[in-house]
Amino acid sequence: MWITVGIICAVLLALVLKYIFTTSGPNPFARDTREPVREILTKKEKNKVLKQGFLASKVPENLDAVVIGSGIGGLGIAVLLAKVGKKVLVLEQHDRAGGCCHTFTEKGFEFDVGIHYIGDLQEHKPFRCMLDQLTNGQLQWEPLDNPYDWVVIGPPENRRRYPIYSGRTRFPEELKKCFPGEEKAIDEYVRMCKKAGRGIWLLAMLKLAPTLIAKFLVYTGLCKRLSYFFEMADRSLTEVVNGLTENKDLRAVFTYIFGTYGNMPKDASFSMHSLLVTHYLNGAWYPKGGATEIAFHMIPIIEKAGGAVLVRAPVNRILFNSNNEAIGVSVMKGQEEVHINAPMVISDAGIFNTYQQLLPKNLQAMPAIQKQLSLMKNGEGGLSVFVGLDGSKEELGLKADNYWIFKENNYDELWEAYTNGDREESAKNVPMLFVASPSAKDPIWQERNPGKSTVSLVSFASYEWFEEWKDAKVTNRSPEYKELKRAFIDGILDVVMDVFPNITRDKIEYVDAGTPITNTHYIGAPKGEIYGADHGIARFSPELNATIRPQTPLKNLYLTGQDVFLCGLPERWPEPSPVALSSSNATCIWTPLPWPRKPNLLNRSSSSYNSKTYMCRFVLGLRENGIRATV
Ligand SMILES: Cc1cc2nc3c(=O)[nH]c(=O)nc-3n(C[C@H](O)[C@H](O)[C@H](O)COP(=O)(O)OP(=O)(O)OC[C@H]3O[C@@H](n4cnc5c(N)ncnc54)[C@H](O)[C@@H]3O)c2cc1C
């Protein structure tokens, strides 16, 4: 039996490798493009790059591709194409580029929307090399403190604080100090997380391999046999941790990071969870100068190749010819439609926006499109509170770390009661909260904003709670809406001031909340989703992953971004597999594949990419366009 399975696997592997490596084409990573690091510019200077408004006259001629949406998925693929000389136009509906990586400023305080910490960014690691290449070495990363996360559980009179340290051995060792007698459970948890994390290669393979091979792997049940990731994917996080320990606080500490992908433990796949746990094992980082630096350093690369990134450019439909091949997009400029032609359309706008809003009705009804939609569902709505404070990080007791604060250790029950509860009551009772200070993480914040600080608070909220106000003007919604927001803000601030006693009401110079309908407006999330499509157990079925891929059922139309692969700036590619390469949203359309370690261009041409840099092969989902990347 095992010999047969082995032979089948070997044949499959040979076919996949042949399919992938027989394509020739230019390579976006052929050259180490890092340049000496330049000084971080002021907001005004950066806005000249990030806020270039759409005008038909600014659309470059003879485009090679048009990308809908300027999140990391959209900009990432645009940079890759630009690096092989393609002229790409990125169109963003908001008034600035970046998607979840954009920032905004109110009363002098700059706030990040959606980047708080990223793992796997050690200098020699492939994911770091990849981000360096995508930003020509201009994006710099600042490590967070260690412990980088704190799990805070319980009411004020019985509050327990558990530090989470990075470090492959330190992470479990420190947990063992907090939970004596639970050594076996902790070791087993770490072992399972690492093993499941490593198995993610097959998920990428399903999205990359020829459809027939992917389907063969799915329908023969081989996925579960070949990868522990898929073996564990339909087991819930609650089920797994409950099987490891009876200690309720330890169960809560094992599961606390579910907020980074948005499913309560009983609905979360253990495999998804394992990716996040292992993602931060080697530390956590924050972009120096704030999240806005990410898009800011990618756009010039697109422009250098003749492309452009234009904002206030809502795409209202994708254009098709009579053979149902995508031939461009239409952008609303006031009441007028501007048509833009391109031989390739890549959508970073999310699967629901793309299929339900941008396709003509007849194509939307295609069985293959309906099949994809039926496999996905909208993710949980996000709620963010942005606080501008008078006081330095020292005065306010803020550090370069994150707090995950929970009312108690029974997350599943807390979440159920909150999301199914009466919204006014739930507003006063937000049971889980992420707290971070972007200003404390950014080493240049204080020199630019002396004596001021910011705090970002993130939780979840039901879209339906706010839906009645969705059509009102974003800056002028009704008093009832503002009152509901105020209730959330007040409840949340009470918790924060209790945990951070140096933060008091009189220090708050600015506070406002973004609800799910705010997300709809600014990041185009149709149901206010915090992380795009739902990342629950169903998302990890082999069938779904073989079906939802960069290629769509429509010729010349591709998907990129968090709905194709997974949410997060990077999605981890685990060690110690030979492919220690993180894929990211940007890689959704160009997926990394294993290749034996050997010296490569990057480490030959540069001193800081040392011999630990892995030989990796990137294979573009766009292989039919003859582009292949090898690092
Ligand atoms: C509050 C929050 C905190 C987060 N924290 C972290 C973190 O700490 N670490 C981490 O790694 N990840 C984090 N994430 C997740 C990460 O930011 C996202 O997964 C990732 O940035 C998504 O990138 P994307 O390109 O897929 O989509 P997006 O960034 O959502 O980009 C999609 C873009 O498409 C645009 N668009 C939509 N429709 C149209 C249209 N019709 N025409 C033109 N443009 C359109 C939208 O406006 C948007 O700009 C966080 C997310 C949030 C919301």
Automatic annotation (TrEMBL):
Membrane topology, from the record? Peripheral membrane protein
Asked if the Swiss-Prot or TrEMBL record annotates the protein with the keyword Lipid metabolism, the reply is yes
UniProt-listed Enzyme Commission number(s): 1.3.99.23
Query: Keywords for this entry?
Result: Endoplasmic reticulum, FAD, Flavoprotein, Lipid metabolism, Membrane, NAD, NADP, Oxidoreductase, Signal, Transmembrane, Transmembrane helix
Q: Which domain of life is it from?
A: Eukaryota
What does UniProt give as GO cellular component?
endoplasmic reticulum membrane
Q: What Pfam family does this protein match (any one)?
A: NAD_binding_8
A molecular function GO annotation: all-trans-retinol 13,14-reductase activity
The UniProt record lists the keyword Cytoplasm: no
Which reaction(s) does its UniProt entry say it catalyses? all-trans-13,14-dihydroretinol + A = all-trans-retinol + AH2
The molecule here is called All-trans-retinol 13,14-reductase
Q: Which organism is it from?
A: Neogobius melanostomus (round goby)
